[in-house]
Structure of Poly(A) polymerase:
Amino acid sequence: MTKVARLPLEALPDFPALCQIWKVLPQARLVGGAVRDMLNGLPASDFDFGTPETPSEVMKHLRDAGIGVVPTGLSHGTVTAVIDHRGYEITTLRRDDVTDGRHAYVSWTRSWEEDAARRDFTINAMSCDQEGRIHDYFGGRSDLAAGRIRFVGDAAMRIREDALRILRFFRFQARFGSTPPDQDTQEALAQGVRMIDRLSVERVWSELRRILTGPRVTDTLQLMEATGVLAACLPELSGTLPEAISLLDALIVCGGPSEHCLRTAALLAGAGATPEGVKACVERLRLSRADAALIQAFLLPPPFVPDRVVTDEDVVCVLAETARDVALGKVWLAEAHQIASDPARHDARQWQRLRSQFSDLPVPVFPLAGRDLLAAGIPPGPRVGELLSEVRLWWMQSGCRAGHAECLIYLRDLRESFL
């Protein structure tokens, strides 16, 4: 073990709450992601503790101190302290007794090194005591500085213990990895591909969406392809990865947001997926209705390409029928397509102007509703909907500018034309 310079815990917004926990559990340490992120100069948001005390001892100490406690995962040694309506997980130090490729059966230990040894990667195996001292048993700090994602211990064995670690490796590689994995790690990942079938598609998508929003997404996808992991997770990209990555790269180059649905749409579009193929993909991954609908909407034809002057009136009419985020996503993808296919024609200023129009112009609201037609003397029935649709079409064709009174006048003229 090496001890290194202390972290400035007192600068954390959660420091008063952390001190309350340390007051009753002085042997506890912050573990995992919070330590990693603080060392990396990133804001830490989730503060999890490890402690040598058993769950029953932890709950007693917290309750005696007047701190709320919830037994959130006693079989895994985890309880949650509740301070100022915020939860802080506290887990008893553990060692793995039996693993089945996805779950572990554990027993308690008082050894911090044993507990660190069961964690997936060295950068996640560090801990920090209440003095801010970092305890690093497996070289996590040097790996973090080098941008190296390394399994704790033997990579193949760690993957056999839990198949999810394959996808977690790529997620952390996308976020923190600037150094390619060594040959042994790549071979272990490739050999573990067959275990991915043990994971639920929901877990696979949960990891994929995080990979897709990482800062090194294209390099990570290429590494996933080289190890066979991508084909197991996204067979829709099989054989078309260069084209898919080309469009995703173009989306990133033009400054497209790192949003998982938009990046997924870019990959599928680059791969030449048909509407039927996209539908099959989102259904296979069991995406939420919102995510599935957004990806499919992004892949519909864009509202405009700025090869001509697009007026505010044009944009407002699109916003009357299309959600702002969908319209913007289509514009981002259209720009990426132009960069990938015809970079000589790309004019970033024109695309920025178009996006600004879609971002800044107000969404028009059609001023009539069915009740207005009933109040105008039109009897209830299918004709109400038909007339409402005809008035709305006129309203859009006239630039969505007509107000309530003007629409009623058009409605009157429309009715009279049929008398």
